């Protein structure tokens, strides 16, 4: 049974700003939102060019395409079939203002990361959200993978014991050479993308993934943030050391500039009783090692998994689920939360395992601390 139709008599309405026809992330969001049939895309702004925005919306068959974000907010605020959720996929310097306008219109929000341009903006946004009953999800999409949720559930269950060590690497290669048109790429412009390309684009993924699985944020860090490709002004590399309150240690190596790099997101979490390892290029598997037992290869959809992993699994084992399905799990979490609120009920606890606005704020704290450390010869900085 379709929960949205059963409860509302219709599907939830999704509006999108950004993520045009030729956009990688736009196709992912729109496709993921439709995967579990709880949402339909009913309104859009798909380009900063007003004419193209209207044409692209019509091309995709979206019922209410708008020329600009301002037009969307004006048209949707009092519309009898107003959108329920707004997905924001625009350059980073617009996230804060668009989120404020969405809250003013009474919309729930699913925003790409990083949350805002500065920590101050993110904290202000979180404070304003707290004055409403709106839902806010930040697109740390790797948390939607079933075996990432299995890892988190194992930590919560005490399967690994006391946290001892975390290592997360994110090694990409698409910026291994200096590009001819980097000056025209908004990701390379600090005034649009934020102070650090590497920290905002993928470094926060490592930070959030480690925190999501362990349930702990580090107490302080030291970082080296730089560019390793000669002639590039935007950061393409960071190395980070972490210290946790209980004495555990961690490290991140994050770069987009390794020749031959593909995607390279891997995480290892170790405790006093065991270790789990997850590789995003083999996402259906989780390796579990203990002190006195043989290595176990846990498989999505297989036996012996926690309910959190089963909830995020939608096809039988042996049929891979990947990046778009991970996004779809976040949309499903949001839908379950929205529908529970509509019924005046508390959502199922596992439906709240999506990254919320505090995760976005914590990501901005990480960026600020890492940059401050790097600017001070990698001195240790509290995350605060």
TrEMBL record:
<dbReference type="Pfam" id="PF22725">
    <property type="entry name" value="GFO_IDH_MocA_C3"/>
</dbReference>
<dbReference type="InterPro" id="IPR000683">
    <property type="entry name" value="Gfo/Idh/MocA-like_OxRdtase_N"/>
</dbReference>
<dbReference type="Pfam" id="PF01408">
    <property type="entry name" value="GFO_IDH_MocA"/>
</dbReference>
<feature type="domain" description="Gfo/Idh/MocA-like oxidoreductase N-terminal">
    <location>
        <begin position="13"/>
        <end position="140"/>
    </location>
</feature>
<feature type="domain" description="GFO/IDH/MocA-like oxidoreductase">
    <location>
        <begin position="148"/>
        <end position="277"/>
    </location>
</feature>
<dbReference type="InterPro" id="IPR036291">
    <property type="entry name" value="NAD(P)-bd_dom_sf"/>
</dbReference>
<protein>
    <submittedName>
        <fullName>Oxidoreductase</fullName>
    </submittedName>
</protein>
<dbReference type="GO" id="GO:0000166">
    <property type="term" value="F:nucleotide binding"/>
</dbReference>
<dbReference type="InterPro" id="IPR055170">
    <property type="entry name" value="GFO_IDH_MocA-like_dom"/>
</dbReference>
<dbReference type="InterPro" id="IPR051317">
    <property type="entry name" value="Gfo/Idh/MocA_oxidoreduct"/>
</dbReference>
């Amino acid at each position: 049974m379709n929960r949205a139709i059963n409860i509302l008599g219709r599907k939830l309405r999704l509006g999108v700003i950004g993520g045009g026809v030729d956009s990688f992330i736009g196709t992912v969001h729109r496709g993921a939102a439709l995967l579990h049939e709880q949402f339909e895309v009913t309104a859009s702004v798909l380009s900063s060019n007003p004419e193209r925005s209207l044409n692209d919306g019509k091309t995709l068959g979206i019922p209410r395409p708008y020329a600009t974000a301002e037009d969307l907010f004006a048209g949707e605020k009092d519309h009898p079939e107003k959108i329920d959720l707004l997905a924001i996929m625009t350059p980073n310097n617009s996230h804060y203002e668009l989120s404020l306008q969405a809250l003013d219109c009474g919309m729930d929000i699913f925003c790409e990361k990083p949350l805002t341009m500065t920590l101050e903006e993110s904290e202000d946004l979180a404070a304003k959200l707290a004055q409403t009953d709106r839902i806010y999800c930040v697109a740390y999409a790797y948390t939607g993978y079933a075996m990432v949720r299995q890892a988190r559930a194992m930590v919560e269950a005490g399967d690994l014991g006391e946290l001892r060590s975390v290592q997360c690497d994110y090694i990409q290669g698409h910026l291994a050479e200096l590009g001819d048109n980097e000056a025209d790429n908004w990701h390379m412009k600090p005034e649009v993308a934020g102070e650090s390309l590497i920290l905002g684009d993928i470094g926060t993924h490592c930070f959030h993934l480690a925190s999501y699985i362990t349930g702990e944020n580090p107490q302080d860090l030291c970082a080296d943030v730089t560019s390793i490709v000669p002639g590039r002004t935007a950061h393409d590399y960071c190395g980070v050391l972490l210290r946790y309150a209980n004495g555990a240690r961690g490290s991140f190596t994050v770069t987009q500039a390794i020749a031959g790099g593909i995607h390279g997101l891997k995480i290892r979490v170790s405790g006093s009783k065991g270790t789990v390892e997850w590789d995003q290029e083999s996402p259906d598997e989780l390796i579990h090692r203990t002190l006195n037992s043989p290595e176990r290869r846990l498989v999505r959809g297989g036996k012996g998994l926690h309910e959190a992993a089963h909830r995020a699994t939608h096809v039988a084992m042996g049929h891979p689920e990947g990046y778009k399905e991970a996004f779809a799990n976040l949309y499903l979490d949001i839908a379950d939360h929205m529908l529970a609120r509509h019924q005046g009920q508390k959502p199922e606890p596992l439906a709240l395992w999506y990254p919320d606005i505090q995760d976005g704020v914590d990501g901005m704290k990480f960026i600020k601390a890492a940059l401050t450390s790097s600017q001070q010869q990698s001195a240790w900085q509290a995350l605060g």
